[in-house]
């Protein structure tokens, strides 16, 4: 069975990280997964709280610094970073460890998200020789699809129109503001 490395970045928000972890562990437990929780130099009790929670539910885990790069088969890895380099740098720590552990797929998951029952299976079913990257639609707390999950691919003139002089001269122009797909069309495609 193919392994999936799930990377979750935590920064001073262990409460959301625990809810996210719950959805991964209890809702999506049919896949062979390794979880990498990267604590991005929170300087609060995040690592302790996450560790206490995992002990409480009987999950085995290991805590180690981001400077330690050793292959392992731990289901849950809490990696502490001694430098907060931001979102990309924190995720890269987890991705690097997941690749070192020979995970065949990487799933970057924001710590303030929750997964539905079949999220991982649905995404995995879309991967084939022609599709190597998938992403789910994201729902807001009110159940509506987040506009951010339906952004168009930037065109070469987008910076000029959306961020340049034209955006200031014509702030209400539809062409300048329209950088999202029609969400109802996307939902129709499932």
SSE order and pairing:
Elements: E1 3-10, H1 14-27, E2 32-39, H2 46-56, E3 61-65, E4 76-80, H3 87-100, E5 105-110, H4 119-126, H5 158-163, H6 165-169, H7 174-177, H8 183-188
Parallel strand pairs: 1-2, 1-5, 2-4, 3-4
Helix pairs in contact: 1-2
Describe what you observe in this structure.
Helices cover about 35% and strands about 15% of the residues. By secondary structure, the chain is α/β, with parallel strands linked by helices. Helix 1 (about 15-25) runs parallel beside helix 2 (about 45-55). The longest helix has 14 residues, at about 15-25. The mean pLDDT is about 85.
Structure described in brief:
By secondary structure, the protein is α/β, with parallel strands linked by helices. The chain has helices spanning 14-27, 46-56, 87-100, 119-126, 158-163, 165-169, 174-177, 183-188; strands spanning 3-10, 32-39, 61-65, 76-80, 105-110.
Characteristics:
190 residues, alpha/beta, 5-stranded parallel β-sheet
Distinct helical segment count: 8
**What helical percentage do the residues reach?**
25-40%
Side-by-side strand order of the widest sheet: 3-4-2-1-5
Mean pLDDT over all positions: 84
Shape: globular
Number of strands: 5
What does the largest sheet look like? 5 strands, parallel
């Amino acid at each position: 069975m193919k392994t999936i490395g799930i990377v979750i970045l935590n920064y001073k928000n262990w409460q959301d990280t625990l809810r996210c972890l719950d959805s991964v562990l209890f809702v999506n437990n049919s896949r062979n997964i390794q979880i990498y929780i990267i604590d991005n130099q929170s300087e609060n009790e995040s690592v302790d709280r996450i560790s206490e929670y995992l002990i409480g539910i009987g999950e085995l885990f290991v805590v180690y610094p981001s400077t330690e790069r050793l292959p392992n088969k731990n289901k849950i890895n809490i990696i502490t970073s001694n430098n907060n380099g931001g979102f990309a740098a924190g995720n890269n720590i987890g991705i690097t460890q997941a690749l070192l552990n020979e995970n065949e797929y990487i799933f970057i998951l924001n710590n303030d998200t929750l997964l539905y029952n079949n999220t991982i299976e649905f995404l995995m079913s879309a991967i084939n020789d022609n599709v190597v990257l998938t992403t789910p639609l994201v729902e807001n707390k009110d159940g509506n699809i987040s506009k951010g999950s339906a952004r168009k691919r930037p065109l070469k003139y987008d910076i000029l129109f959306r961020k340049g002089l034209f955006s200031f001269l014509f702030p209400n122009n539809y062409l300048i503001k329209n950088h999202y797909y029609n969400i109802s069309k996307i939902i129709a495609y499932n």
